[in-house]
Amino acid sequence: MAEVTIYTKAYCPYCVRAIMLLREKKVAYQEVRIDVETERRAEMIERAGGRSTVPQIFIANQHIGGCDDMFALESAGKLDSLLQA
């Protein structure tokens, strides 16, 4: 299974939805709370090509975008293959 990193912060409904999908798929992930580890916000923005909203999701070090992007991959039947890489 591919390594998954998701940058989040508290009280973010999109973060909750993205994490729920990962849990439904029984995917292990590393959550980075940028409201707790504030110094990691700059890291997220750099890795995400300037995007500063949360969540920002990476699968196997590939930036896939945010929650809507991940659900679009799921709807297109492409998410599982990324997670298996």
UniProtKB/TrEMBL annotation:
Record InterPro entries: GLR_AS, Glutaredoxin, Glutaredoxin_subgr, GRX_bact, Thioredoxin-like_sf
UniProt KW Signal keyword: no
Pfam family, one: Glutaredoxin
The Glutaredoxin domain, residue ranges: 4-64
Record SUPFAM superfamilies: Thioredoxin-like
Keywords: Cytoplasm, Disulfide bond, Electron transport, Redox-active center, Transport
Annotated family: Belongs to the glutaredoxin family.
Stated name of the protein: Glutaredoxin
Species this protein is from: Alishewanella maricola
Gene: grxC
